[in-house]
Amino acid sequence: MLLHQPTKSLLIKHPDPWAVREVLPHSKTLDHPDYNLAVHLTVESSKVLRNMGLEAPAPIRFFYNWPGKFKPFAHQIVMAEFLTLHRRAFNLSEMGSAKTNASLWAADWLMQTGRVDKALVLSPLSTLERVWANDIFDTLMHRSCAIVHGTREKRMAALAADVDFYIMNHDGLGIADLVDHIHKRPDINLIIVDEASMFRNASTRKFKALERLCKRHDIRLWLMTGTPCPNDPTDAWALAKLVSPDRVPKFFGAFKRATMMQISQFKWVPRADAYAVAFEAMQPAVRFKKADCIDLPPVTIQDRQCAMTPEQRKAFEDLKKTMVAEAKAGKEIKAVNAADQIGKLRQILCGAIKVGDDDYQALDHKPRLEVLTEAIDQASAKVLIVAPFKGIVRSLETELVSQGYSVGVLNGDVPPKERDRIIREFKTQADPHILLCHPKVMSHGLNLTEADTLIFYAPIYSNDEYQQVTERFNRAGQKNKMTIIRMAAHPLEWEIYRLLGNRQANQTSILNLYKVVTE
Question: How would you classify the pairing of strands 352-354 and 360-362?
Fold first, then answer.
C-alpha cells in the first residue's frame, strides 16, 4: 500500500481497491502505474482508511499553516493529526514533549474548519497563565483567551467574554452553577484537560462535573497526562470512563479485580497483565516519550505560578510597607541593605523566615508545595530540586518524606562523607528518587545525569550558581530530554529569573529589585 498527497486527493495503491470503494464510494479509479485509487482527503475518509489498517494522513498535515513563533516538531504534527481525527482521546506523552502546542494547533484547525466553536481548557492553577495563556499568545496570536479564576462573579464574567479559549483550574468544576453555565453553552464544544490524572478518582466533585459535561454528545474531549497510572493500574478506570466508557466495567470493583490481586486482608498488588489491561482501557491514545522526540531541544523550560497563603501575603505586605516608608522618608538605600530586605521577601515567598543565625520560622506555603509535588509526579526519571535557603530545604525534606517520597538532601549541614553516599545512591539505586539541594553545595563538579527534571523551588540570586546548577544534569552522559521548571509566586521572583537568564543578577540589579517592590 502506498500513499501520496497531492493537493486535495489521497492517491493509494491497495491490493483490493474495491474494498475501499465500498466504504468510500466517491473514490476514483486511476489508470496509473503507481496508484490505482484517488480518495478525497477529509477527516472522515482518513478515519475510514485508518480503520482499514491504512496509514492515512489527516488533512491538518497538508491544509494548515501551523501559525506561531515556532515550527512544529514532527511528533507534534502526529499528535495534532491524532486529536483532529478523534472526538475523544488521550495524549499520554511525557512532560516536556510539547503536547500543549500540539493540542492548540489541533483545536485551531478544528475551529477554522467549523468543527469547534470554543474550547474549555482545564489545567492546574499554576499553569493557567504561565503555560496556557502564554502558549496561546505565542502559538495562536489570532486567537483570544480568558482565565476563569477568582470569585464566582469573576469566573462568570470571564465565561461571558467572547473568546476562543476559556482557561480554568480543575477545581473550578466544583462550582455547581459554573458547570451548569458551561453545560448550557453549545458553543463550548471542546474540552482539553491538562494533567488529567487529577481526575483519576471518580468519587470527587470535579470528576462528576466533568462526566456530566461529557454526556453532551457534541462535546469533544482530549485528556492529556504523562502519568495516567501514577499509583496503580486501577487509576485508568476513571479516566477511561470519560473517554471510552465501553472499554471498562461499569463499576470500579470489577476493574480492580481484573487488574489487582488481593494477597492479604488489606493489601492488593497488580496482576501480571494489569498495565496491559489499563493500556487497552485508555484508548484511543497517542504517546511519545521525550527520548523518542529526536527534534526536541535538549532542555525545555516551563514556568509554574504559585499562590500565596494569607499568612505569606500578610508577612509580605507588612515588610513591603516598611520598605515603602523608608523610601518615602528619603532614607538612603544601599545595595547591602536592599539585598537583606529582598532576601527576607524571598524567604516569605518560599515559606520560612530566618529569625536567628540558623533558625527559621515556618509560614504556611501549601499552594507552593502542591505545585512542587505536581511537577515531581510528572517527571519521567529522577528529580533535582533547588531551594535557595537552608530553612526551606529542611522544611521541604520533612514535607516530602511525609508524603512518601524518597529524598536525599545536599546542603552545608551534611558532612562530605554523607554527601558522597547520598550522591552515589542517587546515581546507582532506585532511592533516593529526589535530590533536594542548596545551590552552593551542588554548583560545581557533580554529574547528576540520572535526573531529567530540575525544579527551582524559587530563584537563586547568583548568575554563576544558576548556570552551574543547570549543568549538573545537562552534560555528557545524559540520555534523557531535560525539563527545567521555574516556580514563582510574585513578580519579584519572575524578575529575578529574567535577570538570571540575561546574567544580570548583581548589586546594581538588587537596587532595581528594591524599586520593583516599593514603586
Answer: antiparallel
Distance CA 83, CA 93 (A): 13
Rounded to two decimals, the pTM is: 0.77
Q: Tell me the pairing of strands 268-270 and 260-262.
A: antiparallel
Task: Name which of 433, 312, 423 is nearest 373 in CA terms.
Answer: 433
Please give the angle made by the CA atoms of 375, 354 and 338, to the nearest 5 degrees: 95
CA distance 222 to 190: 8
Q: Is 32 helix (H, G, I), strand (E, B) or coil?
A: coil
Supply the pLDDT for residue 229: 87
Q: Cβ-count burial of 141 within 10 angstroms (0-12 exposed, 13-18 middle, 19+ buried)?
A: exposed
Task: Report the DSSP pairing between strands 407-410 and 434-437.
Answer: parallel
111-134 b/e (C-beta count within 10 Å ≥ 16 → b): beeeebebbbbbbbbbbbbbbbbe
| DSSP assignment letter at 100 | H
* CA 506 vs CA 463, 496, 509, 511: distances in Å: 8, 10, 5, 9
Terminus-to-terminus CA distance in the chain, angstroms?
68
Q: What is the pLDDT of residue 417?
A: 85
Residue in 76, 133, 123 with CA at minimum distance from that of residue 101: 76
Peptide bond into 432 cis (omega under 30): yes
Give 191-202 as a DSSP string: EEEETGGGG--T
How wide is the angle at C-alpha 318 spanned by C-alphas 129 and 368, nearest 5°? Answer: 35
What is the tens place of the pLDDT at every residue in 237-280? 999 999 999 999 999 999 999 999 998 888 899 999 999 999 99
**Residues pairing with 402 in the sheet:** none
| Residue 494 main-chain phi, psi, to 5 deg | -65, -35
Q: What is the pLDDT of residue 234?
A: 93
What residue type is 4 in one-letter code?
H
58: how many CB neighbours lie within 10 A of its CB?
Answer: 24
Nearest alpha-carbon partner for 349 in 361, 359, 363, 328: 363
Cβ(93)–Cβ(287) below 8 Å: yes
Grid look-up 453555565 returns: 181
216 DSSP assignment: S
Helix, strand, coil percentages in the chain from 3-state DSSP, rounded to 5: 45, 20, 35
Q: Which residues pair with 223 in a beta bridge?
A: 90, 193
CA distance 266 to 493: 46
Run of H or E residues at 222:
strand 220-224
pLDDT score of 35: 66
**Regions of the chain with pLDDT less than 50:** 1
Nearest to 365 by CA among 496, 490, 200, 517: 490
pLDDT of residue 90: 97
Dihedral angle, C-alpha 348, 349, 352, 356, nearest 10 °? -40
